[in-house]
Design goal:
Blueprint: E1 22-24, E2 30-32, H1 33-38, E3 51-52, H2 58-63
Antiparallel strand pairs: 1-2, 1-3
Length: about 70
């Protein structure tokens, strides 16, 4: 199951699990739309392709909450 990380690792923008607009690589590095575009959809950490992260419905977020650990390194 995806962690659904709460922030963009590059700029720190919020990436809510129930909203579109987040991108992940196969290691779940997470970036907002703007940063993914600036990175040409390539993960700066592993070089993998950044893909649209699926959303998680509110009902499922209750049972399977998103991560609260922020990864932005500032």
């Amino acid at each position: 199951m995806l962690e659904m990380r709460p922030d963009c690792e590059r700029c720190g923008a919020d990436t809510p699990a129930d909203k579109p607009g987040s991108f992940i690589c196969s290691f779940e590095c997470t970036f907002c739309t703007e940063c993914a575009d600036e990175l040409d959809d390539l993960c700066p950490n592993c070089g993998g392709e950044l893909m649209d992260r699926p959303t998680r419905s509110a009902k499922l977020l209750e049972k399977y909450p998103a991560s609260t650990v922020r990864k932005h390194k500032g």
